[in-house]
User: What shape does this take?
Amino acid sequence: MAAADFPRGQAIGRRFALVGSVAAIAAAGALLAAGPGTASTGAGSQEVAAVDQPTVRAQEPLDARRPWVGGANGASVPGSAHALPPTTARGDVVPLTTVSMPVRPSTSLTPATAPPQDDDDPSIVARPVPVDPPPAPPAATLPAWAESTHRTAAGLLSTEVGCADDLGAAALDRFFAQRLGPVLGWDYQHVTALGGDRYLWLFQDAFIDHSGTASTLDRSGFVHNAALLQQGRCFRLLHGGTSGAPAPFEPGTGTHSRSTWFWPMGGELHDGRVYVVWVQMVKDAVDPRPPDGLGWHPASTWIAVYDPATLARIDFGPAPDAGVAPIYGSAMASDATHTYLFGNTFEQNLAREGGYWEGPHSATAIYLARVPRGQLLARPEYRTESGWSYDAAQSVPILRRHWVEFPMQPRWIDGQWVAVAAVDGYWSEQFSVDVAIEPWGPWTTVESRRVGPRGDDPTMNTYHAHLLPWRDAAGDLVVSMSNNARDMRRDAWARPDRYRPTVFTARWVAAEAPPAASTTTSPTTSSSTSTTTVAPSTSSTTTSTSTTTTSTSSTTSTSSTTSTSSTTSTSSTSTVPTSAGTGAADEPQR
Assistant: This one.
């Protein structure tokens, strides 16, 4: 049934009831056992043997490699949310039921309120995926991409999936609206610049069919993550396993779709290496009831290192701060002197926090850590009330907004900080843009509007707004956003086109420096230019002036971009400038 066949009026109230239809695929993924191995390929696909992944040094002695995990000299801090998760004798992370970081009462002028829910149309929680899909039938003709499928030197299966007309938002939206070679659908895109005109796109749950015969999700294979390698305006798919039995691009320490898997977070290129933060997800024993979210939670944080030329994995190990309350590196960006790790709990099982109505929830808070530029395996220091400290327990949110989550995705572009967010994720359709001079703020909301799904299809919802690392020819921001059906089995199973990202533009607004702080203003209500760094080995403090850059960094842009207007799936823009620190449900700026 076409989108136009659904009464729009019935959809608006119900879409808020959504809850999990989207990323739920992972829970869905909880039903599919992933496993590489030799398998017969679909028609037209090249048969290849499974290739072993590089060795994972999951629990190399931390005092030798990452001596700062958890606490000083590798010791876990009792009661700390940042301690390294316990492991088994062989180094596997024990799936624990963790407790998310508590949310302090909001001190904003505008209290957070819950997006409305429709009792007559409860949100969807379980999202099943195909379990052992039937063998693909013979194809009458070879798929167009079959001849390009091959095994790379890094052991990945590579398939060319086509080229966008250009890198403007409208052209990219048309490109991602279609089936991309073997890929029927996917979500949670994260894009990392690799230098020149190359970019790495990492996705969460993907449905893959190399035979070209599957037209529904239940007839395709499933992986918890996959990659696109972009060069210019052309793309190729990368994943593990074989064409007949796809496996994730990043298996981590081992992926078991019924219990644990790895999802991508932030990433950057530094000194000839690509660093990507991965979060290990654990399936909960009981799925929450609507509208309390999805039946899984983050368990630990890891960092992978890749060769930017081949994308061969060089290293995979626990992050220096391997905790998940928050996940430092849910977004990552660097200025001239530091790499900043923005922290968010990514908690979507709201039953673990008392249920939907017991908000604001932990994922509404944004924390900040930093390391010297590009030193992702270095010990981080954390933003505190008065500046910076190596003591994670002293960290405080730089922002707290909304009810369920504030999945802020910042970048450093043309000498200023810019961030986009899909407000309240699956539970809302609001989109926002914020700008700042410093990564800790004050952050100023310069755009706030509704962004509906592709075609304003009332069966669908939007979530995960991600800012692409370039501006278009008109100077506007290019934003991608995930889409899915709220009831995936009913409305996306037979319509995979509903499970594909959209791309649109947002207006570029220059950040303004905050007014000079009064000498009588408390440090907790102004943006201070001096910071206090507390070293771990001493109780004394030293004061240093932070170095900031306002114009030395240039954007990564592509000459082939063209000016485009936003797609029809977005409503007209309503630009809402706000004064620094007065966005919805902000904490006082520091």
User: Anything to note?
Assistant: Residues 1-55, 57-109, 518-590 have pLDDT under 50 and may be disordered. The longest helix spans residues 169-177.
